[in-house]
Design the sequence.
């Protein structure tokens, strides 16, 4: 009976190796040989799944962004609430989570940011807030203001953009050890109160 190979599990293992290497030594320290050693595979196996080191790093970054998005979605599901304000807070708090995995993903994104300067496709992956996310968040802000009895301001989309930019910046501060998650939450709470008042 032929051996069943889980190709997705193998790609995930390679990506995890890239994340770990980049967090420890920066993206410039990530090489085919080091990824193979970290993942415990041959260099040929990496080349089987990725045509180039660039393709592996791009996929690693894309998967990191998707992992952060999944963290946000899981947090909303776990919150089990229909309150627009609670959902808004849960989404934003997910970026400043003290969880080790969240910090690791943020550190990897920071390590990869240098590559984005010379690679517009990577820059787009790292760009804050896509249109769908901003529209969703603006809707939450509108509904949360209505829930509080606050008047609409017709600037919810701008507020949504600022909220995500602030949460991302605070997540970076936590990843770099500049700010504690508790301090970040206080600052984010202050801003959310201002937005919803």
Sequence:
């Amino acid at each position: 009976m032929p051996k069943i190979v889980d190709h997705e599990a193998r790609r995930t293992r390679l990506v995890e190796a890239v994340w770990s290497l980049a967090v420890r030594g920066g993206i410039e320290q990530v090489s085919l040989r080091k990824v193979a050693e970290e993942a415990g595979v041959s260099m040929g196996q990496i080349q089987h799944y990725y045509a180039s080191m660039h393709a592996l790093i791009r996929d690693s970054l894309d998967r990191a962004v998707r992992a952060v998005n999944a963290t946000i979605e899981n947090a909303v599901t776990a919150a089990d609430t229909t309150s627009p304000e609670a959902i808004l807070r849960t989404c934003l708090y997910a970026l400043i989570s003290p969880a080790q995995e969240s910090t690791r993903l943020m550190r990897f994104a920071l390590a990869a940011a240098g590559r984005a300067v010379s690679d517009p496709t990577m820059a787009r992956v790292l760009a804050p807030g896509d249109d769908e996310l901003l529209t969703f968040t603006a809707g939450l802000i509108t509904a949360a203001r209505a829930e509080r009895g606050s008047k609409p301001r017709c600037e919810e989309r701008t507020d949504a953009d600022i909220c995500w930019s602030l949460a991302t910046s605070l997540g970076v501060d936590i990843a770099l050890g500049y700010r504690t998650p508790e301090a970040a939450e206080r600052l984010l709470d202050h801003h959310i109160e201002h937005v919803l008042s």
Notes: The mean pLDDT is 87. The radius of gyration is 19 Å.
